[in-house]
Amino acid sequence: MKFRLTPVLYADFIILIIFGMCDTISQVLLAMHRIIEPVIRFLLSVIIIVSVLAGEQEKNTSPYSFSKNIDLTIAGIISSLLIGSVLVDYSPISKENISTLNPENISSYDSKAINNWDLNSIKMSDILLYSSIAVPALLLADERVRDDYRGFSLLWAESLFLTLGITNLTKVLVSRPRPYLYGDKASEEYKMKNDNRKSFFSGHTSISAVSCFLMASMYDDYNPNSKLSPYLWTGACFTPALTAYYRYDAGKHFPSDLVAGYIVGSVVGVLVPRLHTKSSKINVGLTLQASGKLRTHLSYRF
Question: How far, in Å, CA of 124 to CA of 17, rounded?
Answer without folding.
Answer: 33
